[in-house]
Known about the structure:
- The complex is a heterotrimer.
- Chain A is an alpha/beta fold.
- Chain A folds into two domains: about 5-220, P-loop containing nucleotide triphosphate hydrolases (Rossmann fold), CATH 3.40.50; about 225-300, Alpha-Beta Plaits (2-Layer Sandwich), CATH 3.30.70.
- Chain A is about 35% helix and about 30% strand.
- Chain A has ten helices and 14 strands.
- Chain A has a six-stranded mixed beta sheet with strand order 6-7-8-3-9-10, sandwiched between helices.
- In chain A, helix 5 (about 135-145) packs parallel to helix 6 (about 165-180).
- Chain A is elongated and about 70 Å long.
- The two termini of chain A are about 30 Å apart.
- By secondary structure, chain B is an alpha/beta fold.
- Chain B has two domains: about 1-40 and about 170-360, no CATH class; about 45-165, abc type-2 transporter like fold (3-Layer(aba) Sandwich), CATH 3.40.1710.10.
- Chain B has helices at about 1-15, 20-45, 60-70, 80-90, 105-110, 125-150, 175-200, 205-210, 215-240, 250-275, 280-300, 310-315, 320-335, 340-360, and strands spanning about 45-55, 75-80, 95-100, 115-120, 155-165.
- By secondary structure, chain C is α/β, with parallel strands linked by helices.
- Helices cover about 35% and strands about 25% of the residues of chain C.
- Chain C has helices spanning about 45-55, 75-80, 95-105, 110-125, 140-150, 170-185, 200, 220-225, 235-240, and strands at about 5-15, 20-30, 35-40, 60-65, 70, 80-85, 160-165, 190-195, 205-210, 215-220.
- In chain C, helix 3 packs across helix 4 and helix 5 packs parallel to helix 6 (about 170-185).
- The longest helix of chain C has 16 residues, at about 170-185.
- The radius of gyration of chain C is 18 Å and the shape is globular.
- Chain C starts with 5 loop residues before the first strand and ends with a helix.
Amino acid sequence: MSIVVSNISKSYKTVKALKNISFEVNEGELFGLIGPDGAGKTTLFRVLTTLLIADEGKATVAGYDLLKDYKTIRESVGYMPGRFSLYQDLTVEENLKFFATIFGTTIAENYDLIKDIYVQIEPFKTRRAGKLSGGMKQKLALSCALIHKPKVLFLDEPTTGVDPVSRKEFWEMIKRLQQKGITILVSTPYMDEAALCDRIALIQDGTILQIDTPEAIIKHYPKAIYNVSADNMYQLIESLKAYEHSHSVYPFGEFVHYTDKRTGFDPKQLKKYLEEKKLAGISIEITQPTIEDAFMELAI
Amino acid sequence: MKQFRGFVIKEFYHIFRDKRSLFILFGMPIAQILLFGFAITNEINNVDIAVLDHSKDATTEEMINSIAASEYFSIDQFIEREADIETVFKQGKVKAVLNIEKDFSQKLIKDGKAYVQIITDATDPNTANTIFNYVTSILQKFQSSKNKSAEFPYQIVPQTRMVYNPELKSVFMFVPGVMTIILMLVSAMMTSISITREKELGTMEILLVSPLKPFQVIVGKVVPYIFLSVINAIVIVVLSIFIFKMPVEGSLFLLGLESVLFIITALALGILISSIAQTQQTAMMISLMGLMLPVILLSGFIFPISSMPFILQIISNIVPAKWFIIIIKGIMLKGVGLWFIWKETLVLLGMTVFFIGLSVKKYKIRLE
Amino acid sequence: MMENNNVIEVKELTKMFGDFTAVSAITFEVKQGEIFGFLGANGAGKTTAMKMLIGISKPTAGDARVAGFDVASEAENIKKNIGYMSQKFALYDDLTVKENITFFGGIYGLTRAKIKEKTRELTEELGLKDLTDQMVGSLPLGWKQKIAFSVSLLHEPKIVFLDEPTGGVDPITRRQFWEMIYKSANKGTTIFVTTHYMDEAEYCDRVSIMVNGKIEALDSPKKLKEQYGAETMNDVFLKLARG
């Protein structure tokens, strides 16, 4: 076990940020913490990187106790905070060199590990970090977090505010790091990134809703989901919500995801109902649930 | 040690890349000293003075001539009665009156001592004080040239009398004051800002989650500013000696040591501020309100402590700047050695130890 | 002028900063009651373009009319007819819900009676009744966004500009937010959403995608997905950005 968290709770003044959180991350696993802003992801990361002390509960990281061995933990983890914490007035190379030095190592010593990532930003190594694009900042921050060859890597919302292209590249980089045997705990508010993790924990309001592989979470979704569409979105939603058998109605892009209370649901009946409501262009098709559907089902 | 060196190098990068702060850092002391120095040297050219000579003998005539011969003064008129002194001042042309006592030559020979009163218009305190200093130095030169040929050495004693503003403080007080303000500002404000900036950026989180020890972070933040502040102190002293003609009577070495002590006091305060403040803006506000105002108002820099209400006199004791101003005033103007200022030094030292202790205790190894 | 009920008409709109062309001759129209997604990566020029549309930045070349007014010469009239909400700044955290509503109502010249009526209407609709005297800062992000959206509609503008309105919000609140958007679009308000979150794009009637100052694609999400053989708008974007 690389990370073992048992019954961690943490409060700020009146707000309970973490409520009795427990989970385990296997060695070499890519574990995702999926939840919206304010769910407690950052607090949990800060507790696990020894920046905050939990009010209750225990945890070990890389086999070390959070309280007793905090110094050892600090030496053996890599941490990339939510905002790309770089020195804006230092160049790419100076940032990397600085972080290598304070961790008592050199760029050359661990170059193998960061090579894949660093070569992409190396052409800009004399540019100030503040002048980099979001994607490049993210790559530099990751290089800095890796420079001392950590056993466990904590990435707090690494893809927030980054364009889709950089997001995709970033996940490819994480996957390669995982193959090098590094345990990775990553948090994200994007539900669509969940599928890229080995296992995920869905978290909201300081509580873990579910822990499993993304496939299992989708597989265990209890209901059949239908994509419903019509020419007037607003009236469609209102009508579906007013339908006596409706269980959940959520707009989902160009469709509405609909689930029914009954087990023997017949789409034709619903279509008839919607036609009575004067909606046109009605289409009802069964579809696959997504992590987001599962999240909403659990969060109610 | 290598980690620490890397950290200090990084701090210097920050400082030298922030052109605006760098400009304030070095531009401000130079500008301030030049302003004071320029204003003073400008006004002491061909100042009109009046002479009230009660003796009218050969010595006094020679003495008056030596003053008139200097580039600084020109004799506007001779007056006959004490009552005329006020009249010439009210006319406003004359900035000072030289009042020479009766039987000047006889007294010099008989008692070895005679008095010249320099009456100045202290509505402009800077000029008044400078005039007094210049006249005094001319009289001293005159006296020593006379003494070479005299059988018995004698002494001309200048006395000052300020009219209209007798509570005047020395113009040279400005140099110690400016120096104190600048050292405080550079050391405390800049350090607290540079630490809180790391908090704002989030880099503090990474520094905490690194093998770097907390005291290494603090000392690493402080070292560059000790260096910069010492340079600033040197610039101020050099400028005031050459442009302001500030006499530095005492030991420059002692002045340097005391300045370093005060710089460390200010740095400790800066660290303390950064442990309270979360943002650069708050750090700046606390530095300005909590440090600059006391330095300007309660240190004796502008308002003499002796004329403050009793309660403020008590409060002024906890302002480190007050003690530093006494110390450097002593060294620069009076030329005293450590023997005379050991008490103030000890107070400053005590404060420094206290602030360092407090900020080390307050420094968090975690985020809250 | 507005016979074809376009509330936004943009022709060859261009903005240059020195030699750099931030927005390069973009052309598009938005119909009344439409939900229009204005997409692009950071730095693609969408913020610059939007600033011109809301009348706070003058175009270098080209024309644009918003709510029937010219952006270059009638900026003041535009400001009266649009609402604006951004994720970065929406409401004052240190004012209560009620104070925020009163303030924003006030700057748009609503009468006191109207503000009172709107406050009641808004709090009822959002189910906020017990929260009107709470500091906005103490409310969850999702609540803030919903209130901010309602506040941007206070003066019943013809068009509302939303800047990344639902980034980071939890999935359920986010849907409630989109339901509010559908509702006001249904009433005839035009919604103009700028975002780089591609899943927000899926909810729009039509989207434009900006790459390097130019509009590279403009259609309904469904058609764009078909055209690019992609499953999601995210994939459409990836294909466009990689050229």
